[in-house]
Amino acid sequence: MTALQRKFASAALIVGVFVLWELICLVFGISDLVLPRPTQIVTTFIEYAPAIWPHAWQTLYTTLVGFVFGVVIGLALGVLIGSSKLAFDTAYPLLVGISSIPKVAVVPIFVLWFGAGTVPAILTAMIICIFPIVVNVATGIATVEPELEDVMKAMKASKRDILWNVGLPRSMPYFFASLKVAITLAFVGSVIAETVASNKGIGNMMMIASSMFNVPMVFAGLLVLSVLGVALYAIFSLIERRVAGWAMRKGA
Amino acid sequence: MTPLVHFEDVSVEYDAGKETTLALQPTTLSVEKGDFIALVGPSGCGKSTILKLASELLAPTSGHIFFAGRELEAEPVRVGMAFQSASLLPWLSIRDNVMLPLKIVPPFREHYRAKRKGEYRDRVDALLAQVGLLDFADKNPWQLSGGMQQRANLCRALVHDPDLLLLDEPFGALDQFTREELWSTLQDLWMARGSTVLLVTHDLREAAFLANRICVMSARPGRIIEDREVATPRPRQISQTFRPEFVSIVEQLRELIVHAPAAPRFQEAAQ
Hints:
The structure holds two protein chains of two kinds. By secondary structure, chain A is mainly alpha-helical. Chain A has helices at 3-28, 38-82, 85-99, 107-114, 118-142, 146-154, 159-196, 202-211, 215-243. Chain B is α/β, with parallel strands linked by helices. Chain A binds chain B through residues 145, 147-148, 150-157, 161, 165-166, 169-170, 172, 244, 246-247, 249, 251-252, and chain B through 52, 55-57, 76, 79-85, 87, 89-91, 100-101, 103-106, 140, 142-143, 156-157, 160, 166.
């Protein structure tokens, strides 16, 4: 299959799923209280767009702020524990421990400390996306080929020289691959926090809509989330290809 | 004349858990400036250990290493090193890969920012031209064949005019024809630049073709059991390696390594 055909096939699959969904709802007469049809969802979305927009904006805002903090902290930690075997071995169990806590469970704590609203959403987004970044950056730095390290050390290169010239550039593909994962995770974190404790954001909107049995509205919320998620993923894939194209042997 | 590098009764022990393994028996070796020495011997005999000592990647357990008459740590030796894997940086062009030492090694590093586009670039390009890689300067490493990558690797080890060029089986992964081509390239570079070279190799023909002096080492724990000159005039031709006198050198070396006497200290330790 050519690249064009492949793209066409994925698009056809997506459209096909929605068409099938619509048809099943129509044929079996499924109530929109259970599963609204895609056309109903889109209609609801368009109808309520002015009301949805501030919520979408809030979710995007908390996601991105949390993500930026997560990236800064994750990168710093990754460099730190990737540069030393000792730090890697020491810190890794703690990191695994922290990352294995379900993030829903920490939201109440954040609410306790900072009150409901924006801050818990940002913190949840941040804490959920740190781990993949740390692990990827640390792995990239820690797996520099020993021969290359010897070549550098023979030149009397300092640890900083090696990190700057070899370790960091080498970990960039790992880093950008982790950003794609991290941005979608940050999104999940924000929405979780919003559903638990917030009066704004898509997560909160969906909670309210579902308590009023406005099921098409709940699905409209899902639609917004998936569009935002795909958009963010696409942006970071693009950045990844730009910055770390060498790892994909572009132009080979 | 004081030798460039002098190993005096240098030995190396590795800590392997509770036991220590003797990797190199007390060894004395002098490297004159401009010399080309090949170290040959069975696997694990400590050839690479000698290179690591010379590049200060490893400290001797006992003994002393002098550089131009002074204790090694006192005088920074400028070293260039190349291994069997070219280990070029895939995100950099060939030119930038070769330029890497100029970014790191003093005194070049102080001027790197100012000169990387002018003088240093010319310097790198001249070296690349010498090994026939100038047309590939802007390519990335993976776009080059193994032999070409190894040429670039040699350039990277030489660009900062090291006092000592240390080569650890640099051609071990190449096919026979490419290897012979690179022998000639290395000989040309050495003759043009007057570098001092320590070459570790498994290939006895390679040692006999390239080196002025061949040191044969015993099985682990290694020691030098034979130190011989190769007087063949330069530049040597690949075709010479098939002549009887050359073949007999290789045969003698082979005999020495195959029938190397088991090291007495090792036997004692084993009992």
